[in-house]
Design goal:
The chain is of the alpha+beta class. The chain is built from 13 helices and 15 strands. It folds into 2 domains: 286 residues, DD-peptidase/beta-lactamase superfamily (Beta-lactamase), CATH 3.40.710.10; 110 residues, Methane Monooxygenase Hydroxylase, Chain G, domain 1.
């Protein structure tokens, strides 16, 4: 499952290669021993009984991560068999380390937004208003007659007509063929389009449609946030609503995700966690991107379906519980069970493995990755885990077989193209599995 994946932000829309190797580290026994069982678990009284020492290892690892591994703080939340089994806040939410992290701290979840965008599109599919295998040009005529970059340079491109039409399913599975890292000249054309300077999703879509594809639609997985912006625009066209209004009225409000949105009201902004990065000398600093410098504001002029949402651990848990329970949460039906099942199965069986650039051990569903081989990923637990991550070290995983949901939220942008899955995400998931295994 979850890799670090590019968000919809200006500097994070191109895919990043997988950081090889998995670093499994545990906190020192002294750190673990200093945490009381109650604090370590942070769970409700109705939680399944878990030995305190197992949760202390998880608690100690995350305490250590906020102390010695360069993170300001973290929030973790774990759901198992109908109840919270672990819930805790660690460290601080500001660079000055003057404001302790809270369980209801607000994080920019970046690419975890893509799962919400996927749910929006699937709701309209269930209503019969669109089909996943419809050509995109049916809803957005500007995508008719797409060209493919066949060679040359960005200044003198050699173009040829695409032989296949882009479908909505291809957008959701990142197989539409848009240029990403790996074809430098084609990617230059994408960058020159200044997509993120678009005033709205309609303009974004029209600008993107003028950029040639890198490969034929449906022939290769190329992770790129631009595809989910097109999905968001299709939601607007089909529903007749702005994308953010649709998400708020049809998903966030019914699920009571009250601290989730494309912007955060001023009265709540003191709960937003600083986004950090690391200087070349290893010193932690505030990131200089717009999300860090203008916390609570929209990522782009338009509501980004690729990476625009803020959320909390508790809010995102409600979305995950809805998916784990087959599309319904506390009597509120968002999706049909069969639709959710399609989200969580590998949609890329027609491609040779590795189907993604991230790992041979994973495939891709609708709105997230699907773990095919836990051992090949260095992961404990069952095959079939579904989840995704965000650019600033946010993670979620749904394990349908074990009936478990794991959420870990930090707010750190790793240096360069690497990601923080090996040093924080993978150990977190494995420690949870160890704690929950009888």
């Amino acid at each position: 499952m979850v890799e670090f994946h590019a968000s919809g932000s200006r500097v994070l829309t191109r895919f990043f290669p997988l950081l090889c190797g998995i670093v499994l580290g545990l906190a020192s026994a002294a750190v673990a021993a200093s945490s009381s069982p109650a604090n370590a678990a942070g769970a409700g009284a109705d939680s399944p009984r878990i030995p305190a020492e197992r949760l202390q290892r998880l608690d100690g690892f995350l305490e250590h991560a906020t102390d010695a591994q360069g993170y300001l703080g973290a929030v973790s939340l774990v759901w198992k068999d109908g109840a919270i089994v672990q819930s805790q806040a660690y460290g601080n939410r500001d660079l000055a380390r003057s404001s302790p992290m809270r369980k209801d701290s607000i994080f920019r979840i970046y690419s975890m937004t893509k799962t919400v965008t996927t749910v929006a599109a699937l709701m309209l599919m269930e209503e019969g208003k669109l089909s996943l295998d419809d050509p995109v040009e049916k809803y957005l005529p500007e995508f008719a007659g797409m060209q493919i970059f066949a060679g040359g340079s960005a200044d003198k491109p050699d173009l040829r007509p695409a032989t296949a039409k882009i479908t909505l399913r291809q957008l959701l599975t990142h197989t539409a063929g848009f240029a990403t890292a790996g074809n430098e000249e084609a990617t230059k054309l994408l960058e020159r389009a200044d997509l993120h300077g678009s005033a709205d999703l309609a303009e974004f879509s029209k600008r993107l449609s003028k950029v040639p594809l890198a490969v034929e639609p449906g022939t290769r997985f190329r992770y790129d946030g631009t595809q989910m912006e097109v999905v968001a625009r299709i939601v607007e066209v089909v529903s007749g609503q702005r994308f953010d209004d649709f998400v708020q009225q049809r998903i966030l409000a019914p699920l009571r995700m009250e601290d989730t949105g494309f912007s955060i009201p001023p009265a709540k902004r003191d709960r937003i966690v600083d986004i950090t990065a690391m200087d070349a000398d290893g010193k932690l600093r505030l990131d200089q991107g717009p999300s860090a410098l203008h916390p609570g504001e929209m990522l782009n002029p338009y509501p980004s379906g690729a990476g625009g949402l803020y959320s909390t651990a508790a809010d995102f848990m409600r979305l995950c519980r809805m998916l784990l329970d087959g599309g319904t949460l506390e009597g509120v039906a968002i999706l049909d069970r069969k639709t959710v099942e399609q989200m969580m199965v590998n949609q890329l069986t027609f491609l040779e493995r590795p189907v993604t650039q991230f790992s041979d051990a994973e495939g891709f569903g609708l709105g997230g990755s699907v773990l095919l081989d836990p051992a090949g990923k260095g992961r404990l637990g069952s095959a079939g885990q579904f989840g995704w991550s965000g650019a600033a070290s946010t993670y979620f995983s749904i394990d349908p077989r074990e009936r478990t949901i794991s959420i870990l939220l930090l707010q750190h942008l790793p240096n360069g193209a690497a990601n923080d899955l090996p040093r924080i995400g993978t150990p977190f998931y494995n420690l949870i599995h160890q704690a929950l295994t009888p």
